[in-house]
Sequence to fold (452 residues):
Amino acid sequence: MQVKRLLSKDINQSYLDTLNDTCYMQFSRNSSIKHSFESQLSYVNSFNTGLSQPNSILFGVFEENQLVGTMTASFDMETKSANLGILIFKDRSSTGIGKKALGTLTNWVRARFPLFSIEVGTNKANLAMTKLALSCGYVPRIGDSSEFIYFDSPAYNFEGVDERLSIVDGKVLFFGTDIGGVESILEFYVRSTVDKSFFVQGNGRLVLDYYGITNLIESAPNLADFTSLMFSTGADSYTSQSLQKAFRLARKASICILDHWVHYRHRFNLPNGLLPEIIVTTNEIAFAIAKKNFSDSEILLTPDYRLQRLKHITRVDIERTSDCVLLVLEPERAELEGLEAITKSEILNSIEWAKSVANELNLARICVRLHPVMESFKELQDVIEREENVTLSEHSRVEGDLPSCKAVIGFSSSVLYLTAKLGIPTYSLLRFSDNSWLGRCQEIMRLGLTKS
Fold:
């Protein structure tokens, strides 16, 4: 079963037969209308698919590339709410596909729009839809006396998070810098019910804009207004060090989320007494490293919420683009711990390496994803312009590239860890030792094509 944005070319006879069956469609407001290919073409084309400020999106439910149902998601940006609807075609009813489809779409909306409430509604006499909503975990709304009944999807909770994080109370200041760091702290921000504000510097702001988080502090915060600090390491930052020091000296709770496994103790540049009292890791690699490097801090291992979010997002294909090899690039760098250097020539040659994987997997398209600091790397852009079936990613975030991605190639980006854990074949172009983070992530395969 797949959920994809519905296109006009997907309209089939089973769709029309279902819409024109007045008994099957008895609870639809349009049951008395005669539906045709032309009317459905107009209906499909009426939906907007922009994800930054969506109005409504029409999805198709597919089995073996055949359309077997449709779903809608309508959004209210002011109330931050989403209303979902579902229609499984009559020849596929009572097969269990409705539960799979509604569950998939619910999880996608929750992952892509984490601040939104989610509801489904139906006529009270529609027992099949009521049963479906309940089976997907929706809860009947109390006190609804109209002929319609609405069901709400349960809100986020902190299930699976160590109870020691309960020291975060009062008013909490969340702080992050780069994209990876803000991503790692996002779920804790969304799930917490305390009074809170987010202070962000650098390109991490793109993450908050993407998810519609608006409770932001635009300038240096007044620390007296906050009782605790939850922050991520991310890029080196003087502000980050100053905040940590100030909260610790004031004996206020300070919790750090390690954005991934490469940020060791030197990222903090603080003595033991001023290091965070709790350091949170989201994978076994980071947990093992942190235990060695932060002996005076309490180390917690929590679920990787970003990975969970990506699993849900990648199950719904909005773009409907052709399958590709995703090439994830990084700027030229000196040799890293346990890894080789990344040189300019290797970056330029990476497309040839991506072609070899594409040929092996019988994929015609290569999508190149640049690191944010590489946007002006003209030499690479010139190479891409000369190549057929090689394009630059148009997405500001990797989530947009993943649904059509059948393999990933890169050097040492954290994206490699995420895609490998998602089950996408993932290759590193670097030679690396078994003790490096790449070596510890056994799902990442070695191409080892760089020169010593």
About this structure: The longest helix spans residues 344-360.
